[in-house]
Every structure is written in structure tokens, then in C-alpha cells.
Amino acid sequence: MLTLILFREELLSAFGSFTSFQLVLVFALCLGILLLGFPSSRLGYVSFDRITQAGLIWLVGPVGSAVFNGLASLVFPFYIRKRTGQNRREALFRAMHNVGMIIFVIMAGGWAFSMSGGAYPVRSLEPGILLPVAATILAMQLANGFFVRVRYALTHARVAEPVDWFANTLEPAAALIGLLTVVIAVNTDQVTTLSYLFVLLALMFTVKWLSDSRQRLEEKVRERTAHIAAQNERLERAQARQQELVSALDRLSREDALTGLFNRRHIDDFLKQEKGRVDRYGGTLSVALLDLDHFKQINDQHSHQVGDEVLQEAARILQESARESDVIARYGGEEFLLVLSNTDLSGAQAVVERIRRAIAESPWEKIQAGVRLTVSGGVAELEVGGSLDKLLSLADQRLYEAKQAGRNRIIAA
Ligand SMILES: Nc1nc2c(ncn2[C@@H]2O[C@H](COP(=O)(O)OP(=O)(O)OP(=O)(O)O)[C@@H](O)[C@H]2O)c(=O)[nH]1
What Enzyme Commission number does this protein have (predicted)? Predict the structure, then answer.
């Protein structure tokens, strides 16, 4: 408004010879070019608005250019308000900001044009206008950059791209198209000018369409990527859970439910593994088979329940009295197998003797009055080149001998 009042004379002289159709056409062109812009992830909104900004400087001078481009910039944010999700206040703020910037940039361009000897309208592309045209474009770029920087400084925002080659190529290129448009408009009849404008707008529409399609495609790719990432995360969580379940199942499948000791399956595997180690690297390996004495009587005289408790307590004593490196399993009903790695016969005998004593001396009465328990055992050491079957049957044979010899004893030879 202020520009309109202050520069009334200039405006009248600039547009005095224009028909109202031409005035409407110029405004439609200014607004149309803004509407044919497209969103860019790096620059926000990209449009070829330099065509009309610079073009109108060269056609009617900076004041006329500022009025038409300013009006278009004022209307434009309200046009795209719905798409950008802005409310009326934000759109108004954006409009004021855009108008301010555009007037500033156009005035700078116009000033540089006349200071470097340019006179409007530019009628032809003769070499003499090269300098004023370059000065206009440069001044507009500098004014634009300055304005953006001041705004960023005032709003404490960070400049994303201080020197953007894309913007600095696109805008001067658009200004040159503006120059061509002016020369065509000045030198050709209305039909030719309109045909040219039609082709120009069609080209811009194509660029916008391509860019919008790319934007939509990128959006789709982003959505899909996020979807896949979420699915992957779910899958990884499910896999981790599955792994936990597999580990828990594996543990359960190797454990005896009543006593919590390893079961026969586990100790058989472990024994094979230990034998492999001895065969390969040498060393000693001993086993002990332990069997609770007269256990049937506990079941018969008391109850199966008491028998279970005795088994659990015996398992606890076994684990407590053995060394940490010894592996113990419930091998049968009331039979236990100990695998003693890196232990020779006498060492194994000492460990198992300690267990025998601990069981014999344990206060079994606390489970049930009248309960007493002893254990018999056979110990054997793996011979060089000997088999596991032979080792276990030797331990079993010695266990039998211990039973025969009166029980509550360990036989190792
Ligand atoms: N309570 C209970 N008893 C079991 C379990 N497994 C095996 N038994 C019992 O253990 C007893 C083993 O008896 P026998 O093999 O005759 O041996 P024993 O009575 O210990 O006599 P010796 O081994 O000769 O000293 C049987 O009565 C089985 O029923 C169990 O899980 N719980």
C-alpha cells in the first residue's frame, strides 16, 4: 500500500500504456509462477519467481515489479494455506515476510540496474545490456542472501546451506528467462507473446509435476523404510524371545526336575566331551557312581514323598561337598554320577569319600523321625586309550562291590 501511494507517479508512467488485460495477465503470471513452484527438502519452496521479479524490473522498473510481485506474494501464502497446514496468522506472517523480502530484493536489483547504466524497457539482447543485467542478477542474489541471513540471525535459526549452488543457479537462470520474456513481449505481437508464455508455463508445469512425483516417491520410500524398520525390530524382538525360550528349553531338557541336578542326557554328552579333551590334550579324568543305600526302605517305611525329600537333600549335599569343577547328575532313580575332570583316582576317591561322610553324618531326622541314609560308591579313572563304556562299567562294578562289602563305603580299586 505504502509503495502504491509513495510511487504513484512512477506506477502511472510504468503502466500507463498497459491495457487492463495486460495488467491482469502480468499479475496472473506473477501468481501463476509462484503456484508452479514445488517443495524441496533442502530449500523449502522452490519457484521460478525471479522470472517475473527480474523480468518486470527490465520491463517497467523496480517499483512496478515490486507492486506486482509483492501483491502475488501477499496472496500466495493464503492460496497454499491448507496444503502447508498453516493457520491464518501464520499465513499472514509468511505473506508479510515474503513481501518484505521481495520488495527488498527487487529494489536492490532495480538500483543496481540503473546504477550500471540500464534503462527499461530492455528492447534487445545487445551486448550493451550485459553489464546492467549481470548487476541486477548479482544484486538480487546478494540482497536475497543478506535478507535470509538477517532473518536467521533474528530468529536464532541456523543457516542450513550458507551457499546453495542449486538456488544460486536456478535464480539467475530464471532471471535470464525473464529477460528473454521481456524482449519477446516488447518485440512481438500479443499472439506470439501469449504462445511463448503458454509454452513457458507448460515447461514449468512439467518441472513441477516431475518434482512433485519425485517428492511423493521419496515420501513413499520413507514410509516403506520406516515400516520395514519397525517390522525388523519386531522380528528381532521375537527372535531374541525365541532364543531365550530355546535356551530355557535346552536347560530344562538337561536338568532333573526333582533335584535340579543335571540329568543323564547332559552328563553323557559332557563325559564324551571330556574324553575328547583327554584324548587330544592328555590329562586325567575320573568318574564316581553313587547309589543311596536301602533307599527302597525309606519309600516303604515312610512315604514316597519322604523319599523325594531325601533325594533332594542328598542332591544338595552332593553339590555342596563336591568341588565347583565337578559335574554331578542324577543318573537313575537313586543313583548319581560324578564326573571329575583333571582328577586322578586318588583325588576322586578323596572327593567322593568326603561326600559319603557328609551324607552319613547329615541330620536326616529333620526330614522325618527314623530316617537314616548312607551312600555307596565306585570310583574309576579313564585309562589311556580306554573307552567310556569300560570306565562306567568299572565304576559300576566297584559300586556293586561296595554294596556287597556292606554299603556306606567307597571302592576305588
Ligand atoms: N521317592 C522316590 N523314590 C524313587 C525315585 N526313583 C527311584 N526310587 C526308588 O528307589 C528305590 C531303589 O531301590 P533298589 O534299587 O531296590 O535299591 P535300594 O533300596 O536303594 O537298595 P540298595 O541300592 O541295594 O542299597 C526304588 O524303590 C524306587 O522306587 C524317586 O524319584 N522318588
Answer: 2.7.7.65
Taking residues 89-111, report their average pLDDT: 90
Q: Is the CB of 293 under 6 A from ligand 1?
A: yes
Ligand 1 pocket check for 296: Cβ under 6 Å: yes
pLDDT of residue 46: 79
Residue 106: burial class (beta carbons within 10 Å; 0-12, 13-18, 19+):
buried
Using a 10 angstrom Cβ sphere, with 0-12 exposed, 13-18 middle and 19 or more buried, the burial of residue 241 is exposed
CB atoms within 10 A of CB 245: 10
Instruction: Label residue 288 left, alpha or beta by phi (over 0 means left) and psi (-120 to 50 means alpha).
Output: beta
Q: Which of 261, 263, 295, 303 to mutate to test ligand 1, by most ligand atoms within 8 A of the CB atom?
A: 295
All domains in the chain, ordered by first residue: 2-187 (1.10.1760), 264-411 (3.30.70.270)
Q: Which atom of ligand 1 is closest in space to residue 407's alpha carbon?
A: 25
Rounded distance from Cα 296 to ligand 1 centre (Å): 4
Answer whether residue 1 shows pLDDT above 70. no
> Is 334 annotated in the active site?
yes
Which of the residues 171, 274, 334, 381 is marked catalytic? Answer: 334
Q: Can you tell me the mean pLDDT for 201-217?
A: 90
What interface predicted TM-score (ipTM) does this complex get? 0.96
Distance CA 179, CA 413 (A): 112
Mean pLDDT of 97-125: 93
Order of strands across the sheet with 410-411?
Answer: 327-330, 335-341, 285-292, 375-381, 410-411
> Is any ligand 1 atom within 6 A of the Cβ of residue 299?
yes
